Task: inverse folding
């Protein structure tokens, strides 16, 4: 099972949850990015294109578990290189969240349900 689990989320679809306590600064999620060529990217179905991040001329496809990390306007992790790092102490059972505004995922346009006080509600 490991340190994190993917299961149904109250925020949106599936989510990633801590399966142990994490301390601030610890790596929570290690990405499983797959590098695609432009041609491979263009042949992806639209719903897969939501999980693409551009890095220069590379197209990086987010796989599991990182694609299931939900957005929160008050996230408990920060994307650093190819990891999500805890920005606060996270307890076992808490949902792992990141800030998609910073992570610059193109084509993303969804309603945010994170419920935090500073929620921006629409993610573009
Ligand atoms: Zn929000």
Result:
């Amino acid at each position: 099972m490991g340190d994190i689990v993917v299961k149904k989320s109250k925020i949106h679809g599936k989510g990633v949850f801590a399966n142990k306590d994490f301390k601030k600064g610890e790596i929570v999620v290690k990405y499983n990015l797959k590098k695609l060529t432009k041609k491979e990217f263009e042949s992806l179905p639209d719903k897969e294109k939501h999980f693409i991040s551009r890095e220069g001329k590379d197209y990086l496809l987010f796989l599991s578990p990182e694609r299931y990390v939900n957005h929160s306007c008050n996230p408990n992790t920060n994307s650093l290189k190819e990891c999500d790092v805890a920005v606060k102490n996270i307890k076992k059972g808490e949902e792992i969240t990141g800030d998609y505004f910073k992570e610059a995922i193109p084509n993303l346009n969804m309603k945010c349900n994170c419920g935090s006080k500073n929620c921006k509600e629409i993610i573009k």
Summary: The chain has three helices and twelve strands. The longest strand covers residues 4-8.
